[in-house]
Automatic annotation (TrEMBL):
Residues 1-19 form the signal peptide. It is found in: Cell membrane. It is a multi-pass membrane protein. Coiled coil: none annotated. GO terms for cellular component: plasma membrane. This is GL24339. The gene is Dper\GL24339. Keywords: Cell membrane, Glycoprotein, Membrane, Receptor, Signal, Transmembrane, Transmembrane helix. It comes from Drosophila persimilis. Its main location: membrane. The keyword Transmembrane helix applies. The keyword Transmembrane applies. The chain crosses the membrane at residues 304-326, 364-384, 561-583.
Amino acid sequence: MFGKIKVVLILLLAQAVSGKTEQPQMTFLTNLIQRIHKEKPIQTLLMLQHHQDKDCSIQDWNPDGIPILRVNELIEIDLRMHFNHMSAALVCLEEPSHMSLLLDALAKSFDHLRYVRIILWTQGNPAEEFLKQISDKAEEHKFLRMIVLGLHQSVETMHRLKPFPSPRFERIETVSFIKESVFARPTLNFQGKTATLLKNLNIPFTIKNAPTVDFPITQIEDMQIIEFALKYNLTLSRAQKMDSNVPDPYVDIELNPHFVSKSDLLQRVESVNAFTLSSLMVVVPCGKERSIAKVYRKLDLRTWLLYILSVYATFVVAETVIMVATHRISGRSYRLTNLNPCVNMRAFRAILGLPFPIGPRLTVSLRLLFLAMILFGMIFSTFFSCKLSSLLTKLPLQPQVESFEQLRTSGLTVIGLSTIQSFIENEIDEEFTRRYLSNVKYLDPLKYADALIAGNTSLAFIVVRDSWKGFERFQQIIGRKIFCESKNLSIIQNLPKMYKMQKGSIYKWHLTKFFMTFFESGIPSYWKSTFHYNIRERLNVTIPRNLKPDFVPLSLHHLKWLGWVLGCGYGLATVVFLVEVYMGNRKRKVESKVPAPPGSSEIDAV
């Protein structure tokens, strides 16, 4: 009996000693968690351990006032989706070999949340090689806030992650008296960290950037990346990749911002900058004033000439028939010359609305015919003069395309950038593209820019609205407004343009805040206002300024066509005169050979 009591006392004493040795560790962890919670509230604490670690020293630890989720690496849980983002992680590392597997599971649970607070609880003092392995894993998953706690013979050690320029751990000497924040605060100094950028290899020219950074860029928007690197001490390096459509895990930022697809918009909504909202639209040739020659073509002079000739022939035939019938009825002889139908001055004067003399002996039928000719001439000349005067007073504009239906029927070839071809084919309604954008030809950026500057009015172009503003300024500088915007030719509106970055990129949040501040300053707007200088310099083109004013007064050179009309009239009159001389000589020869019968009267038809 005494032996049993002795055994019980020994067990109670061992438990008491064990409690005293474990209590300081739990107290230290509790105090540390409470301090972290005080700096920034922890609303969810994820406690992760390996499924084979049955004897983790903290598996039964419960802090006051903080909800805990206890999981192992086999349990999949999305904290970012189902729990508050103000969370932290406590990872129990009993075996160093479990480190990689547990950190992979942790990254998956937090969906690569960069600023999650992570505490690694290890037994013993972690070796430098083990810390190096942890830092490599932190760089892989882009963890920025991590501490490693080591417990060895009731002595606590703490190592804090320094993420920049490359992840490494520094030891905190006075663990119990930490004066600064437990975790390193999110820094705005990358301390020379290297960021790999992928430039657009389809554009063979570059835009000059800051002289202190030797990095070529291809678009005005990319200058923001240069300014970001200068401000936050970031080193830029270029990646050489031939296929820019295939994601590269080693590229941090792909230059040339692109439209975000609707499927990706919900996932990237936190990084959307309202200043980067843009639209995709079609610009078409502007409506322009018609020249004098086009005005005459608008009058359709050929149709008018056919009307005049038909009316002239009708008048001549009617007058001839009436005169022949009158002479037949009166019993008088008559004779018509060959030139009478060709040159009937009364018919010409009537058609032109001019007065013409009539003889006192004309019959009533001829007078009625001349009255009809006068009425027709008055109406015809008045209508033609009004139409011509209205066209010459204000030259009408050739209307520009205002809708997709007009674009489809206009026959214009639509030119688009090859870089947005996949976006249009995947994001725009297939029925819409088949109906209205079937005549689209995609070109690489250089050929696209050449075609746009060439000013071919048989083409329309798919442009991004913010890029169009720069080209519109370019048209104002050179004084040639060739392409114009129409309100009803927008393909897609108010969609954000963003840079392609890796999932969970450490630069995403900093870039978003920087871009917002940068756009508010108005600097990007100034850059876009100088866009035309870069176009002229990089494409090596010389475009003469159009110094011709929009409105010019009439001068003598506008009336040159009258000289041609007068010359043609004089030439035609000369030809007719020569024909009349020839016909008169021939008539006299005939009359001299054939004497007229006595008592006959000869009447010439006028």
